[in-house]
Amino acid sequence: MGDALKVIRDFTIILAIYLYFIAWVYVHFYYHQFGISTDAIKIDYNSYLVFSYNVVTSVQFISWLKTIALVVLSALALTIIIWWLSRKVTALQKFISYAGSNHFVLRIWQLVKKYRLLLLVIICILVFPKLFSISREVAIANYREDRQSTQNLKTIEFIFRKDAEFLSPTVVLDSSLSPQNNLFADITIIKNDTQQILRLLGESDQYYIVLQQRPFNKQLGALPTGYVYFIDKKDVLLAKIVLRSL
Q: Is there a contact between 153 and 200 (Cβ–Cβ < 8 Å)?
């Protein structure tokens, strides 16, 4: 019973390491595409494990697991075939008899048993590059999906404090900021998002991180430029997240 619990404990630790690794890679590359550093986002350890769900349920990860299962089953089938042929073919019977008389199989088993921990470590290390590749691929695919369709992201609106400079409700943009300024349209949308196109990407202790992304342009066949805003929380009097009807 004690050995079984020890195996379960070790397996759980290894599984947690893998889940944290693929979650960290996913989060890093997903937000990196938006130009956001993971250091700027408030994500705790438990949340990282939740992000790993996006990877382990992806087509890429499941396809990789199927490949591994196919290899294992093929190896098992090959072993069974060799065992069956060994009972039918004289040459193989002689080889097995020779190997058995010289303890060949026993020696191989003893070596595997002796260095099983080293073999396990090598296998675990070799798995990391593949998991890195899959997690990165899934993150970039989800980034593109969220750019093309922002329905998975929550709509957010703001009411700003009076001392929030250009964002203040008392400031008229026409008189304080020229319409030719590159930020004129951005501030207009942030102050009064009548079309509800602002989406919450994440937040930190200091900022709401918000995406402005227009829908896919069917006429041009391209996705319009998107913009990411860091809204300082100290300038916000009220933040409203819109929950759509199900």
A: yes
In sequence order, which residues have a C-beta less than 8 Å from that of residue 217 and are 6 or more positions away? 223, 224
For the chain, the structural domain boundaries read: 2-148, 150-242
Contacts of 210 (CB under 8 A, 6+ apart): 156, 190, 198, 199, 200, 201, 228, 229, 230, 231
Query: Measured between alpha carbons, how far is 19 from 14 in angstroms, rounded to an integer?
Result: 9
Distance CA 6, CA 15 (A): 14
The first and second tokens of residue 86, run together, are: 């060994």
Return the exposure string of 165-192: e unless at least 16 CB atoms fall within 10 Å of the residue's CB, then b.
Answer: ebbeeebebeeebeeeeeeeeebebbbe
- pLDDT tens-digit map of 26-56: 999 999 999 998 888 877 777 778 889 999 9
pTM of this structure: 0.79
Report CA 11 to chain centroid distance, whole Å. 22
